[in-house]
Design goal:
Blueprint: H1 2-26, H2 32-60, H3 64-90, H4 97-136
Helix pairs in contact: 1-4, 3-4
């Protein structure tokens, strides 16, 4: 996982360099802040256009755990990246992609356990309530 994150970071850096070079050649005098404004803005808009129908479909199917998972996983990814970058900048620790991967893996495991518990409780409740209804109905 750490290797994958590092490769993704390098890929993003290369894409950034290519876009910057292209834009600098097309629009003289453009600065890096404007490029970030445009690119991140467009990426955010694209993300909304992609995720909105997915989240709407999940909500229509009452798959709230899936929506919650996607949101929290995204939030934790950003948070763990920020923590590691903060460690690098402040010198309070080593910036390691393995730490990010370990943290996210911890969340994945704990979320899976939570989902299992919730579905187990739901299963038991439905079995108990159907048994109670069977006992109440005359045969």
């Amino acid at each position: 996982m750490a290797h994958l994150l590092k490769q993704l970071t390098l890929l993003i850096a290369r894409i950034h360099d290519h876009i910057s070079a292209l834009m600098y050649s097309l629009i003289p005098g453009i600065d890096d802040k404007f490029l970030h404004f445009m690119i991140i803005g467009l990426m955010g808009l694209l993300a909304v256009l992609v995720t909105y129908p997915i989240f709407k479909a999940l909500a229509n199917r009452k798959l709230y755990f899936a929506i919650t998972f996607i949101y929290v996983f995204s939030l934790l990814t950003g948070l763990t990246l920020a923590i590691e970058i903060g460690q690098k900048i402040t010198g309070t620790g080593n910036m390691e992609f393995a730490d990010i991967a370990a943290g996210l893996l911890g969340f994945l495991l704990m979320f899976a356990v939570l989902v299992l518990i919730v579905y187990l409780v739901r299963y038991i409740r439905t079995r108990v309530s159907s048994k109670e209804e069977d006992e109440k109905s005359p045969e």
